[in-house]
Amino acid sequence: MNETPATSRHSLLCQVNGKPISAEVEARTTLLDFLREQLHLTGTKKGCNEGACGTCTVLVDGKRMNACLTLAVQCADREIMTIEGVGTVDALHPVQQAFITHDAFQCGYCTPGQILSAIACIAEGHARDPDMVREWMSGNLCRCSAYPQITAAVLDAAEKLGGNRDA
To answer: Please, which residues have CB within 8 angstroms of residue 51's CB and are 6 or more apart in sequence?
Structure first.
């Protein structure tokens, strides 16, 4: 069987959660599938697989990305952060703690993407008031409708991180 451009394999060097990664991936492999299937980082969830729900949000060089719409090969020489790279059991990230404090999840399926999006939202300076948080977090859907709790958690974490000041 001949390789097609989509199935040809490429070397990928990147950082995932601060660790250097060297792998071979097919050109068509999404970042989501690479993380889940090759690296076994299953915290990043597959939702709509069309970039509409934000469930698969990860940070690439600190910017929010839908892992289902990003090819793994596009991440060569870049830093990827998944939920597994945020905080530890003994030292939660302030956003993780705020989600717990404000009960900002019910089923929890969207929570990893919500947390990563919230971290970026705060870092971008878009967590100054509830309307701003709702607008800048609107790419992340929650089927359980925990939006008031998510908004409260983002604002609380922003206050603790000093990320709710004018940019």
So the answer is: 66, 68, 69
